[in-house]
Please model this.
Amino acid sequence: MAQAENTVKITSVLSLEKSENFIIKRSFNGSLLNHNNLGLAWQGVFVLKCKPQDNIAIVTEPQFIQIYQHNAADVALELLQGLSALQAYTSPKYLYDALGSRLFEAITELPEYDLTRTEAALMHQHSKDMAACLPRAACWIDLGAGNCEKAGRLLGPMNVARYVAVDISVDFVRQALATLQRQHPSVRMAGLGTDFSGGLELPEALALDPAQARVLFYPGSSIGNFTPSQALEFLSSLHRACGNLRTGQKAVHSNAASSGLLIGVDLVKDAAQLEAAYDDALGVTAAFNLNLLRHINRLLGSDFALRDWRHLSRFDRVHSRIEMHLQARHACTVTWQGSQRSFAAGETIHTENAYKWTVAGFTAHLQAAGFAPGHVWTDSAERFAVFWAPA
Ligand code: AVI
Model:
């Protein structure tokens, strides 16, 4: 019996019925894949009859951990602080309710917004080169994973052994992770719901192996939505997350290449091109920005009228950033939770910054955060860069 368990080759299920003379008995939480790649959920002890030559996949279900808990009072306080400031502002995270996330996906399809496509092309074009720089059989930690599409394309080429999809809610990654798990049965997967915008903390519950190299994956130039000082703090937290969680020391890696950060960064370019990317002809970015007011109305019980506001985006060369604002079309008063604010015609709410970096500037920032010099890949027009920064 024990010998039988050890000798069965486990790859993918061809048939569960045809075999008679072989039995595997295991206790686990997981699924079996049938030949259509459909998972059958199993829990507890099961007995499976098959022959040694049968190909069988035993796939554990992804682990799901939810840390972030929505606290309505904290959210209201944060929003009220920003909306009451002399220059009203809101955190860009409030752009992403369910509709906002869909509108952002639509933005990535726009001809004016080539950031996502350029990054995907770079990853594809240089995947061999990247695989040579990055640690093999590593644990990939995908920050802002969403539909897990970007990392999903790299799991095979980069020989990923473990994959952790991080987003504010595990519900955002649940479906995608289940699908990915079926496609990559040998990769151990987890979904982590946490708000990492203030710095990444990896919980003990993940039981990460300190001896396994880690690749922190942060594509999409979301780092551009942090100010440079916030970005430095955030990158420093990522540098710490490359190390040993329990002792606070660097992990001991058996792999030749060490842990590090693989990050996509949008670069400074022509102002007209940048402004078009954040104010497209179809008005999708305008809808994305205006939708924030609906989200705030739900969170705060406020009465923003969308028709009173217009989308504004401009490139600020001094700060090297696109600024997105919502501008009052005329004088209006907005009320919330027993209070109110009047906005003069032309007054704005600052809703997002998207910093555009130079290769030299971002390299220096990575090093200030503790990363070692690594590698950078850019497209021929230097519109976008992917950095590999070893810890
Ligand atoms: C998510 N983030 C990188 C996007 C950006 O380009 O700053 C968000 C966005 N805002 C307007 N368009 C896209």
